[in-house]
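Recap slide: Lipoprotein, sequence and predicted structure.
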Amino acid sequence: MILPTALRRKYAATLLLVAALSACATPQNRVEAGLVDAGISPRMAACMADRMVDRLSLVQLRRLQSLSKVGKTDFRTISVDQFLFRVRALQDPEILTVTSKAALVCAIEG
């Protein structure tokens, strides 16, 4: 399908804007987005990301981010307990500890 020139330019401009914005994303923004993609509520994800980003290495954060790509689960209905079960499957005690503590503190703070 061939798009009209004006539409192609708009599409290209949109892609450039998205690419530029994603390049500016901080690790905290990426962790938060990954948690939301994995099914955690935006409010809880923001709280957890704030606590997790300084305590995990970039490699660990990437491993954690991979959870949003696992399976064909409807991540909008996942509970924090189910999410932690998936984190446990990564078999990294530090990721599990940091994520669990962040979830607990954020759940208490509400």
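Helices lie at 5-24, 27-37, 42-52, 58-65, 80-88, 93-109.
The chain is about 70% helix and 0% strand.
(End of recap.)
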